[in-house]
Amino acid sequence: MTFNLLLSRARTGVENGDVIYSKVLSGDRKVFRLETVLDATPEEIHHILWKVEEMHQWNPSIKNIKVLKQAGPETMVTHEVSAETAGNLIGQRDFLSVRHFSRQESCIYLGGAATHLETFPPQKGFVRAEDGPTCIIIEPLADDTGRSHFTWLLNMDVKGWLPKSIVNQALPRAQVDFTRCLRRRLAEGPTQRHTNHHPPTVSRAGQTPHTHSLTHTHWS
């Protein structure tokens, strides 16, 4: 799959070297790929990202995330509600997603996609958006084991009646904002506020996540 360069430090004013590429899929929908370097090990980043119910504490774009079902230590079903924030072009959404992680050699993969539960239909007052499949890949830098290369493939159908031009502007901006918040959280270190629960040990499954598994990944 070939991606076109969409955003870079020179075009967005981002000072951390974030670069975003885009690829048009069938149906004229775009998938976005963010690449950057984070000052943390893959394990440290995974530790924070897998504690999804605490994500609203450091990411203001999220109102809350609740784990509805834990299907083993590596897979869970979550319900996420985005926050009503100023400048949010897409508006408030909710997501019902399956999230999964695995490890292949030194890389950690967090993947996921939308799912459907008869016992948890779309909530009144929200537009239910759908992820996926989407994926985050975290791998250590070859020359610096204390830093990681971070790749995030964002594939989302926000639903509703929004023009594609607005959606294609808002999604990569959301990636940049999320990454900025993640950097701030990593800089805090393992503070007591964020260490009430510990994520499971990363498995060495030897394969990437199934395509039906993430965050939003939903990770955003």
From TrEMBL:
Pathway the protein takes part in: Steroid metabolism; cholesterol metabolism
Protein's GO biological process: intracellular cholesterol transport; regulation of steroid biosynthetic process; steroid biosynthetic process
Disulfide bond as UniProt keyword: no
Pfam family, one: START
Domain of life, per lineage: Eukaryota
Segments of this protein annotated with the region Disordered: 188-220
Domain START: 32-191
UniProt-recorded Gene Ontology molecular function terms: cholesterol binding; cholesterol transfer activity
Gene Ontology CC terms: mitochondrion
Keywords: Lipid transport, Lipid-binding, Mitochondrion, Steroidogenesis, Transport
Location in or out of the cell: Mitochondrion
Entries under InterPro entries matching the protein: StAR, StAR-like, START-like_dom_sf, START_lipid-bd_dom
Catalyses which reaction(s): cholesterol(in) = cholesterol(out)
Assembly and binders: May interact with TSPO.
Protein name in UniProt: START domain-containing protein 1
